[in-house]
Amino acid sequence: MKKQLIVLLFHILLFSKMVNKEMKKLQFNISYLISSICSLVLAGYLWLVFLPAYEFTAAYEFAKRLISVLTVLLVLVAGIQFFLAIRRK
Q: Which partner from 27, 29, 55, 58 sits 20 to 30 angstroms from 9, CA to CA?
């Protein structure tokens, strides 16, 4: 049991050193990162706050389709912004 624990700790230590070397090669652009988070928050707001306001109205189906399209676009934008936020040196 002790031998397995020592081997596990050794692997964790080795892995953490590899991750640290890789992390030093990465640069983060905080503006793109914050922007991608805001895009995802806006998509959540549309579904949780904006859409329920149209429930039991004639415009509910239209609003639901519109929010679906906007959600797809916002998730796509958030993905692009997240990709731009992380760059290699």
A: 27
